[in-house]
Amino acid sequence: MRFASLALALTLPVTAFAQCGGSFADFKAGLKTEAVSMGIPAASADAFLSGVTQDPAVLKADQAQGVFQKPFIEFSRHLISSQRLDKGKQLAQQYDSVFDNIEATYGVDRTVLLAFWAFETDYGAFQGDFNTANALATLAHDCRRPDLFRPQVLAAMQLHAADDFDPRTTTGAWAGEIGMVQMLPMDIIENGVDADGDGHVSLKTSAPDALTSGGKMLQHLGWQAGQPWLQEVSVPASMDWSQSGLETVKSTADWQALGVEARNGTLADLPASLILPQGHKGPAFLAYPNFNVYFEWNQSFTYVLTAAYFATRLGGAPVYDAGNPDAGLDSNQMKQLQQRLSDKGYDVGKIDGILGSGTRTAVQAEQKRLGLPADAWPTPELLNQL
């Protein structure tokens, strides 16, 4: 689920970011005016917008992302199965030459793309049945994130003008992503590749096009060829847990001096952060620079970590050591915690029951203040002390 690409938005008129809400008919008229100012023919803009309607189901889906409330162990076990692993390995062989070309051209390991392909659409089997034009227009009209979604509507109109997008039949995810690896219209314009040579970038029906476009996009977002992204590690019980978290970056030598060891193989000679998704008694990973690129694809920490871990599994890594984490908080308790942290002045974002980066940072600070293991994993004990 791709939310982070805003590069092309910088090239659009500033007025685009102020136009949301109000009459939907007036909103569409404003879109047409802006599209024509960008060089899109008026007739093409009319054809695109004539049947576009608001979709209440899109807003409902936007507000109900409860799956991201699950902790890492539960979430990863839900998404990763032996069937998905076996299917990924089979597809790696089936499209071996395609992946060879992607790795040579863009430097993105096949397992990374296979993991996205698996999680986004179950290897293309479930690409979403929301009308994409309606979804994008609905989210652009809604005034919470017009700076993200209005440019995507205009990009879809550009694709339509180039005969690469049918507003009546193109379907995808509720947030407007299209195809096997779920790319937004702006991403398609910037990174779409006609890998099968048929003259069109067909992300819904052509695996070579979808995978190669995904590889190009990851390179564009900063992926470094030949570098790892995630590695499971073991950590000593005497560790200073406040050193964990993506905000702290150390060299491999520094982590080794603190007693961090690779569970399998050797540590890469790269800067890295120690990740403890369920605290110091649960799984532990070192996240290398490529791991941060995942957040340009999806901003959910749990999803990103699971996708990155699954890619390592496809590459032969063993099942992680789940350990025995302390009990976490249910959704209502998490909301209580977020509210108490917000009352103390921390920026935890929306009170939504999801353990995001802002909440993790605040939790770690309060754990340190209270003399608890500062591993950023919220527990009932922390909630009670607050």
From TrEMBL:
<keyword id="KW-0732">Signal</keyword>
<dbReference type="GO" id="GO:0009253">
    <property type="term" value="P:peptidoglycan catabolic process"/>
</dbReference>
<dbReference type="InterPro" id="IPR036365">
    <property type="entry name" value="PGBD-like_sf"/>
</dbReference>
<dbReference type="InterPro" id="IPR036366">
    <property type="entry name" value="PGBDSf"/>
</dbReference>
<dbReference type="InterPro" id="IPR023346">
    <property type="entry name" value="Lysozyme-like_dom_sf"/>
</dbReference>
<dbReference type="Pfam" id="PF13406">
    <property type="entry name" value="SLT_2"/>
</dbReference>
<dbReference type="InterPro" id="IPR031304">
    <property type="entry name" value="SLT_2"/>
</dbReference>
<dbReference type="Pfam" id="PF01471">
    <property type="entry name" value="PG_binding_1"/>
</dbReference>
<feature type="signal peptide">
    <location>
        <begin position="1"/>
        <end position="18"/>
    </location>
</feature>
<protein>
    <submittedName>
        <fullName>Lytic transglycosylase</fullName>
    </submittedName>
</protein>
<dbReference type="GO" id="GO:0008933">
    <property type="term" value="F:peptidoglycan lytic transglycosylase activity"/>
</dbReference>
<dbReference type="InterPro" id="IPR002477">
    <property type="entry name" value="Peptidoglycan-bd-like"/>
</dbReference>
<dbReference type="InterPro" id="IPR011970">
    <property type="entry name" value="MltB_2"/>
</dbReference>
<dbReference type="InterPro" id="IPR043426">
    <property type="entry name" value="MltB-like"/>
</dbReference>
<feature type="domain" description="Transglycosylase SLT">
    <location>
        <begin position="24"/>
        <end position="311"/>
    </location>
</feature>
<feature type="domain" description="Peptidoglycan binding-like">
    <location>
        <begin position="331"/>
        <end position="386"/>
    </location>
</feature>
